[in-house]
Every structure is written in structure tokens, then in C-alpha cells.
Fold:
Amino acid sequence: MTEVDYYENVRQKLVLGPLNAPKHRKIIKLMKVFWNEEEIKILSHFESCDKHITLKQLEEKTGIPKKEIKMILARSVENGTISRSLSKYCLEPIIPGIFEKYFQKRKDTKENELMAAKLYRDIMKEVMPQLSIESDFRLFRPVLPIEAEEKLIEINETFDVQSQALPYELVKRLIDKNENFAVIDCQCRLIGELSGEPCKVAPASMGCFMVGIGAQNAVQQQVSGVRQMNKEEAIEFLKETEKAGLVHNAIYDKGNESSLFVCNCCGCHCGAIFPAKQLNLLGVNPSNYAPKFDNELCSRCETCIRKCPNDAIYHKWPLETDSSDERIVLREEYCLGCGVCAANCPESAIKLVKVRDDIPPEQNKIGNKTFVEMIR
Structure:
């Protein structure tokens, strides 16, 4: 009789809309960090990530009493590797999903945390680039820097003035409409630090910026690295992230989720940007803006080149004797439209111009769940 491979059984169920878990040795190793043999046997009776299962149903399927099942699954719930709502349980995708909850909660052993961090870092390098090719789903889109309206945006007369800078395109909206602010550790840079590959752009503590009820919940739940801020501290924090070269990535919608938080992302660790960047692809939806360089003001200092998170800018060295053809050039196909270059230009030689009018959906769901529903 063939022995049942419970890990493979569960791997095939770690599917939600465009998200999946390819059959890769690092994925299986990660699952074995998360779940022991007793836990994985019960999880093999779960449905895919878009369906809940009750304790009563699990009792019927396994023959194990409900009370015992609840005790067996308690560790996984506490660690964030499965979800529970009252007596209903659900699997979540490897990333996003388990990844965020596991490293926000940090309830596992230090040994397991280190192993999971190293495996996730390897998965971002070896597995996730493939997913960037096979799926056109993108969860995030950059919102523009804190002073974009006042200092960085150039009006493009070919577009309706009313559509120049809509609220969901600006990080400033999060400041203007809220009084509660908090920051939590960036899980992507945290796994870099834990696995011995720290980000050179910014530490994990310069992480996700949360507002309103999201900030309140993060403080109440004591999410890893959570720090409360007042409005003045929040503005200063956002400016610091921009100067470091981090992208304000918000959920790609114009509804509730894009107004709850922004991830402050680098190009070397971000789970959305980094895997796709390895294959010269965009891992997020570009904003409606792109940088425009003033060749007269530009000093060719290359600050924008160093700060660009997606390597979309280069220095065109001159051929002419008088150097009249020397300039800084944008590779438009790689530009995220994040505004980091403009926010960091010491000569104010870069403005942001509207180049498209892409309107996001009211809600951006992954299968039948929103991002917040996956990680709460």
C-alpha cells in the first residue's frame, strides 16, 4: 500500500486565485517547518485556501474528537500558519498570506523562525520569479511621495486637470484623513536580516505604515516592531523612507484597503518588486506618473540612479566633444512611477508627469479574499 504524502496533499491545496505553491524542495521544507506530522495529517482534510472547514466536519473526516483537533491545531493558529474564525478553519497561501502573519506574530521558536526566514528568502529568489511570468496579477501600486502635490508633480495639459492627482494616488491622503498612525516591521527585510542578507537600503524597522483602525489593531495585537506615532512623527517617518529610497506601495484599489496602509519597499527584498525585477519585469502596477528630467538643472550626480528601486535610470555618457548629448535617461518599461527619484533629486531637476490614466478597481481581491482578510 502506497504511503500517503500529506505534505504534497496540502501543498496542492495552497491555492487562492492566482496564488499557488509550486512543487519545489524549498516549499516542502518550509511546510515541514510550519507543520509537524500530526498537524499536517489533519490539514490534509482541509479544502483549498478559498474554503473554510468546521471542527465538526474535521471530526467526521478524521474520527478525532473536536476538542483534540482544536488542541492539535492551536499552535498553527497561534503562529499564523492557518486561519481560524470561531470554529471554522482555513488554509492560507504561502505568500502573501502565511508569510505576513507568521513574521508579524513571531510566536514560533527562534530556530524555526530562522529556518523559515532563510527558506522564504530562497523562495523569493528561486520560485517567485516564475510566478511573475506566469501570472499578470499584481496586488500593489505605488502612491506618490508626501510632498508630491506641492513640489514634484508637473501639470500635463493633455490630461483633464481634475484627474491630475486623485486621492488614492497620494500617500498624503493617509495623513490627511487619519489621526492614528503606527509602523510595523517590514517582513521582507526582516527575513533578510534573520537569514544574514540584510537590506542595504533600509532596516526592517523602517517598515509598513498603518493608519486608522489598522494602526489601532497593530498596537493592540502587539505586531512585531509596532510603534505608535503622532501626525508630525508620521510625516517625518514617510519623508525618511523616501530619502532612503523606499517605495510607498499601496493595495491596487481605490477603496478601503488602499487607505489603511502602505508598505515601504526596497528593490532588493520586497516580495512584490524583487522576484519580478530579477527577470526585468514589473512586480507592481506602475503609477500613472513618470519622471521627467530637466537637462539644464541636472548636475549628473546620479543620485536618482542609485535610489531607483527598479534600475530604471541610467547615465548616457556623451559622444560629442562639448558633452551636449550627456544626460540621465529613463527606461520607461522598467519604471514603477514611484517618485523616489524626484523626491531625492538635490537639484529639483525631476518632475512627475502624468503619462496614463489607469483607474484601479474599487476592490482588488485575491480569489475570494482581500489582502487584509488573508493576514488579519
Summary: The longest helix spans residues 110-126. The chain has a mean pLDDT of 93. The chain has two domains: 6-134, 138-370.
